[in-house]
Amino acid sequence: MNQWLESLAPQAVWRQFRVLCDIPRPSFHEKALRDYLFNWAQTLGLKPYIDTAGNLIIYKAATVGMEDRETVVLQGHLDMVAQKESDSDHNFETDPIHTYEKEGWVHAKGTTLGADNGIGVAAILAVLESQEIAHGPIEAVFTIEEETSLRGAAQLEEGILKGKRMLNLDSEDRGDVYIGCAGGIDINVSHRFASEVNHQFDTAFKVTISGLKGGHSGLDINKGLANANVLLVRLLNSLGAELDFGLSELNGGTLRNAIARDAFAVLQVQSSDSSKLQTWFSEQAQIIQTEFADTDPNLAISLQQSNTGAHLPASVQNQLIQAMLCAPNGVHRMSPTLQGVVETSCNFGVIRLHEENDSMSFSGCLLVRSLVDSQTEYLANVAKAPFALIGCEVLLENGYPGWKPEPESTLLKQFDAVHQEVMGFTPAVKVIHAGLECGIIGAKYPGMEMVSFGPNIRGAHSPSERMEISSVGEFWEILVALLAKTPKTDAA
């Protein structure tokens, strides 16, 4: 179904991108792709290596006449975010991504496309395969689990890289080059509450929030997009002032680094309140849809009959809803030094509540990002506080450092010159409010110069993800030109 991709230019890149679309590779399921690439590298006479964390490193010698050049590290991640439309039956562990073209952009049918970071990986593979591109020694690093915890980069085996120049190909804006990024930390919440059955609650309703755009919790956090988890908690809190209900189930969001697009709750109520409940939700839906008409025009709030069952006790329920209401979400602080750049934010990514073994099991996950490590710590503790106050276990996990900008690096100066030559203008030098692996790898290899760049990708981490075809060619030209102009080693 993806053969058509090979008709696009540059063919060497798109042929490899087709491979990445055909082989399932959601986070935690990169092995099939990694093993395929390991064998592929061996057939080309390259030297593949799988480190102790499960990352794949492929070494390629310099082309003839370039043996005296610096070693270049090319870096991307194998995994992709697995998000799909609510009516999609796609299985990310077994099914290929179904791609199509629309108005000059590559899309996926009902799912994320995986251009993040598939196109970067595809470009690296095209370099490794080529017998014509001029380059010095190459160390290609393909990490795992970037989208879930950055574990691959965090556990990258030390001492396996010699290069002092790294090109990270995991950015999403034509004409930009990134020299810094936010650090982050996960806030994982869990608790087991008592359950009860109030027989006065003789009917049940399921309230569903759907149709939201969603998006990347770093790149899109400042766009005012609706978060389904936040809206659902808002409704539950307001409903408590209107009538009594028992909360039986919550299910919202799928990833801590994706803005939640869908969420639902199951409510136990008295049948005598059914009419009032339906009228109230209809009114609230109109209010919220008006608020988000510009950013989320397809936002829908529906109410339908559900099954009666156990629920949270009233006092516990109120505490949990209040705690979730207090959880930070969105932009916390803009950078005072970088105009228009988000410094610190939090995404309320996932909530779950369901009956389990005669009790109610609750869990949630938030992700704090910041360009300032002390702000990451501060906002993480703010997010932790309301849940800790009601007795939940709260773990601050998977922390990773930011990438400190080096605006005077020789690599950046060379990138500027190459970009001017290829594109006709110098790039915009930026710092990104997202988690790139550069900061983590840089901490393991001090002194390594790094830049990050890529083609135009929009809607990452959501089913609206798409990639501009023309910008891929420009991205490829810049990469090839950079490799050809790799400087000589000091020894040379």
Brief write-up:
With 492 residues, the chain is an alpha+beta fold.
| CA-based gyration radius | 24 Å
**Biggest sheet statistics:** 9 strands, antiparallel
What is the strand tally? Answer: 23
By DSSP (H or I, 4+ residues per run), the number of helices equals 11
For the record, give the distance between the C-alpha atoms at the N and C termini, rounded to a whole number: 49 Å
Arithmetic mean pLDDT:
96
Low-confidence stretches: none
Overall, the morphology is elongated
- Share of residues in strands: 25-35%
State the share of residues found in helices, binned by percent: 25-40%
Helix-strand category: alpha+beta
Give the arrangement of secondary structure elements.
Layout: H1 11-22, H2 31-43, E1 47-50, E2 56-60, E3 72-77, E4 99-102, E5 105-108, H3 115-129, E6 138-143, H4 151-154, E7 165-168, E8 176-181, E9 183-194, E10 203-210, E11 215-216, H5 228-239, E12 246-252, E13 258-259, E14 263-269, H6 274-291, E15 300-305, H7 314-326, E16 330-334, E17 342-356, E18 359-370, H8 373-389, E19 393-400, H9 410-423, E20 428-432, H10 438-444, E21 449-452, E22 457-458, E23 466-468, H11 469-484
Helix pairs in contact: 1-3, 5-7, 7-8, 9-11
